Amino acid sequence: MTLCTPARKSTHHKNTRPRGQRPHGPPGGPRRFRVAGADLSASVAVFLIALPLSLGIALATGAPLQSGLVAAAVGGIVAGRFGGSPLQVSGPAAGLTVVTAELIQRYGWRTTCAITVLAGLAQLGLSVLRVARSALAVSPAIVHGMLAGIGVTIALAQLHIVLGGTPQSSAVDNVLGLPAQLADIHPSSLAISALTVTVLLSWPKLPGRAGRLARRVPAALVAVAGATAAAVVAGLSVPRVDLPSWTSHALPGLPEGPVLGIAAGVLTITLVTSVQSLLSAVAVDKLVAARADRSRSVPRSNLDRELAGQGAANVVSGALGGLPVAGVAVRSVANVSAGAVSRTSTMLHGLWIVLAALLLVPALDLIPLAALAALVMVVGIQMVSITHIRTVTRHREVVVYAVTTAGVVLVGILEGVALGIAVAIAVALHRLARTRISREERDGNPLLHVRGQLTFLAVPRLSRALHQLPQGSHVVVELDGSFMDHAAYETLSEWTTGHIAHGGTVETTGPSGTRIAEPAPAAASDSTAPTCCRPWTPWHNHQCGEPPADGPTAPEEGPERPESDEPRRASGLHLASGIGKFQRNTAPLVRDELARLAREGQRPSQLFLTCADSRLVTSMITSSGPGDLFTVRNVGNLVPLPGEESGDDSVAAAIEYAVDVLQVASITVCGHSGCGAMQALLGSAPDDPAVPQTPLRRWLRHGRPSLERMASRRHAWARISGRLPADAVEQLCLTNVVQQLEHLRAYESVARRLDEGSLTLHGVYFHVGEAQAYLLSGTDEVHSYDDVFTQVMPTDPEEADPGETEAGETEAGKADLRGTDLRKAEVRETARAS
């Protein structure tokens, strides 16, 4: 199989696939909007969480309270409809509280709305450039540190409201002003806040069956509703929500302020909303994959589309006077946990927000501001996740996390993220340049441990350690790293050569002690050298360090039966090892091509129908790569006739899909030597009611037309150019390829494309023992002359002379046909006896 991306040649047939249809999906009919019950219940659960949070975040930013409801509604409807993550819920996010509050304080609310619109346009531009995956390249320690810094800033600001005061403009000022605030506590606000926090933290821990039923109601809603009811019943005089009339709702205006400051605001909103939304989308995919109920499949997130959906939502939200919109992890987790199965739940939650904003204004005006502040304060504290701290500590990135968090709290979001990136780069360079070299004795011989990456920076210490080893000794050099540059390689190679010249020996091993050996030039040309670990070596020959066991070769016509079951027991280990080698060696080479195919869908040029025999590796014998072949494999490479009794729909469906949907340009039927299905056909008895009809027997009925064709005198005799078939099995294998091509022509879609001239049929016969392919000529029309398979020569098709094959066939055919009649009679007698 070619590991590089194959160069695609332009095809001359016209692609008739509809413009709006995805290349990897079947054509769809008219769709009707339906609401699943799971989506309806999930939308209500998310709405009950989003309503108080939206008001609390708007309060924390200092924006009009309606702006939180606008952002929640727009995030649900617009981002839910056009986003690429079906189950992600978008709206005003706590992570945007600090930057939004700063923009409002500096430029005013109308200019902040305009900045939100510009940030949405920037997100749309980034989605066009398809850079969504690049945003995930930021170190998780930086992202978690940024969110932790924002959480600390939110908690410090809301603590002043909880105590009955007013927050300051920065986290430092809030810390400095805290003693004075503690000296002037408002008991009513503190009591409401304490009740809110108590209910919020204790509600998820209610025990028993009754508690399990009660926990279905979101804790945030219960906490705010309970605090509101307590304030109303007790008649407490506390500041409450004051939603002005929608007719006086403030809309955006033209940006006013310094250009650089506004540009920095746009960049900050774009950065925070994009990164948070994309990380949340990835987290939602993980939650969906881990969900126990998989009766309804949910597609994975399309991050570029999600970025575009978030951009559109920010444009609409800013234009309507709403807060910036981003994907919110809390609401998204609630949506998935509630059993949502489509984007309908997200859109319905936005609709409920709209209805609440229009119909529930009197009830919302009763909510104490202290309850909302306590709710947002708890959310801010929870953003400093202990799990995240443990994770970055385990990966030795706690310094990056701490610097980013401190920078966001003390300086600002952009400055804190920049500091985190600088520290992350410094840590990465330190790890790259750090190499630990140690020496010990093992069995009386020196052992040199080299841990870390070997670069030119480590060459002086490596050279010093190598030359301190005793001459003439057996030295083991253990390399525990994934990278060695040219300078380190030259140093190690030159020392190895000199050490061996002085009578010593050198053994280079990996971290697990496995030997790293390079084949000597002589061994490369030695025909007796072991073939272990070469490409396409079967698993039972993969005995590293030992040559494959010599033994008689199994006959090609029959299946190989090992004398021991040990290879079968080890097959699972071989499979895991093979997958691991693919991930290490092949995946990096094909990842870009597979990513392109994942984005654009499959567009194979050919349907390749072949046998399920394990000796046929289609990508190897065709030198094809990912996305080239649409492959169908079955026992005997059979194509059941359409409409035939007990026909097989899977093959017919694959043909229809390849011809009508994928619009392949050609179909190839590939048979092979020693086919077990053809042997079974030759040895099968006529249908006997007493003989049980197993699935294999019923399937092989589709091969009887090939057997009848070989026995008939009314059909041409399929053969290989230049020689006679080796036996009846090979004759039937060749005839079967021709017969299955005739079955293909019986399919309506294939016949139509053949008449249009946009589809061609090909037949191939692969001789396993010779590793030789033979191509059937003249398969584009029904012909009456002999069906001849011509040997495929190992030359570039563009350099081959078409006349050479034709002339060679003529001369070989004259000598070949002298014994044809006798051979035909012998084979046909065998077929009739079967």
Automatic annotation (TrEMBL):
Query: Residue ranges under compositional bias (Low complexity)?
Result: 517-529
Where the record annotates domain SLC26A/SulP transporter, the positions are 38-403
List the biased-composition ranges (Acidic residues): 796-809
**Keywords attached to this entry:** Membrane, Transmembrane, Transmembrane helix
Matching Gene3D superfamilies, A to Z?
Carbonic anhydrase (3.40.1050.10)
Protein task = Catalyzes the reversible hydration of carbon dioxide to form bicarbonate.
Query: What protein does this entry describe?
Result: SulP family inorganic anion transporter
The organism of origin for this protein: Streptomyces narbonensis
| Lineage, top ranks | Bacteria, Bacillati, Actinomycetota, Actinomycetes, Kitasatosporales
